[in-house]
Amino acid sequence: MILFIESMVGIVLFTLIIVPMDLKDPLAVIGDYPPAIRKRCEQLGLIEKREMQFSKKELIKKSVAVILLVVLAAFIMIKVNHANTFLQGFGWSYIIWLAITWYDALVLDCGWFCHSKRMRIPGTEDMKEYHDYLFHIKASCVGTLIGLPACAVVGLIVMLFA
């Protein structure tokens, strides 16, 4: 039951962070958009041409967020869940990671992003790629894999400090 509650709290906090940021400036999260939309934004001069999906600034923000999540998750695993082994820290934090990742994919990305006119960037409104569900599912599979080392670090912290 505690993992369910922690997952719901994580989902609410994730939503409160991501949705306002996305609504404020969709171009600030352009790396999360399908490639064809990013390319059109380049052609329109809305963003600079780039070789990689994410800019250095976006990668730094995402990396800092993962580090903060790892530290917070380790603290919660030790203080709230009373985890004291690597497997408890890793397993429980990964369950929460998966809940948030797949909520993001199915509710925020496939539900909200793919259907919200507020997430349309001017000049790209006509693009069918806004309804590219497979793009979001693939991205969540990557997120699922990113969670493995992140949660392994949580497990290590729990093992060392619990």
Structural notes for this entry:
Helices cover 70% and strands 0% of the residues. The protein has 162 residues and is an all-alpha fold. The longest helix is centred in the last third of the chain and has 29 residues, at 133-161. The protein is elongated, with a radius of gyration of 17 Å. The model has no long low-confidence stretch (mean pLDDT 94).
Briefly characterize the structure.
The chain is an all-alpha fold and about 160 residues long. It has one domain (about 1-160).
Q: Roughly how many Å is the radius of gyration?
A: 17 Å
Q: How many discrete domains? A: 1
Mean pLDDT: 94
Secondary-structure element string: HHHHH
- Give the total of beta strands: 0
- Share of residues in strands: under 5%
| Unreliable stretches covering 5 or more consecutive residues | none
Oligomeric state of shown chains: single chain
**C-alpha termini separation:** 22 Å
Query: Structural class, from secondary structure content?
Result: mainly alpha
Q: How many DSSP H or I helices?
A: 5
What is the approximate shape? elongated
Major sheet attributes: none
* Helix percentage: 55-70%
